[in-house]
Specification:
221 residues; five-stranded mixed sheet; elongated
């Protein structure tokens, strides 16, 4: 009897191993608590589509986090295969809550965040503003004469942003020893507190500033 056991020992061990592997496969492969470990999480840019010309949409979340369950035996989904969109057809100026829609292959989506986006649609406006010269730096020199070219700029942007513009300025530094100043300077739009308003387009984006400077009192040698 002992010899019979020894004679079939290898086959019995192999049968036992195959039985354990088969049991483990059917036990864990069909268990949702186990397969959940293989869910795939992607970050996908959110894009506004079908917005009427002359409007701009402003929303806080720029990406959607999507959790999907890939199909068994298939390669993981690539982020570029999925699009998260806000369909803004027939929407004009106002505040809306719009669902985040997915344009993707046939996938099983477990969750998406955000599921919807609260956004503001504003009309694109444009307005002309004169250029103001702001003197900055240590007053080692004083301005005898200053000229800017052009003397005004056109600003494009959301109507709400344009309504906050108090001035468009160029900063002329006074801390150097150069007495004949001739440079191209970027104009900036500022609000009543002097803070830059960045979400606007200024045309042209460079202003020629020419100035004749004199040494400040007490700086002559």
């Amino acid at each position: 009897m002992v010899s019979a056991i020894r004679h079939n020992f290898g086959l019995k061990v192999l049968s036992l191993v195959l039985a354990i592997v088969g049991w483990a496969y059917f036990r864990f492969a069909t268990n949702p608590l186990i397969t959940a470990r293989f869910d795939q999480q992607l970050s996908v840019p959110i894009a506004a589509v079908n917005l009427a010309p002359g409007y701009i949409a402003r929303y806080p979340d720029k990406n959607a986090v999507i959790t999907i369950t890939p199909k068994r035996g298939e390669a993981p989904i690539k982020p570029e295969e999925i699009k998260a969109v806000l369909d803004l057809a027939n929407h004009t100026a106002g505040v809306y809550n719009v669902p985040v829609q997915l344009v993707a292959p046939n996938i099983s989506v477990q969750s998406r965040s955000p599921a919807s986006e609260t956004l503001t649609i504003e009309r694109i406006a444009q307005q002309s503003y004169p250029i103001a010269v702001n003197y900055s730096g240590q007053p080692a020199t004083v301005v005898s004469k200053v000229a800017v070219q052009p003397q005004s700029v056109m600003i494009h942007g959301p109507s709400g942003e344009l309504s906050e513009i108090a001035a468009v300025r160029v900063d002329l530094p006074l801390g150097g020893t150069q007495l004949n100043f001739d440079q191209m300077i970027r104009p900036i739009a500022v609000n009543a507190h002097g803070d830059e308003i960045a979400d606007v387009q200024i045309v042209p984006n460079l202003i020629r500033v020419r100035a004749q400077l004199l040494p400040a009192a007490g700086t002559r040698k």
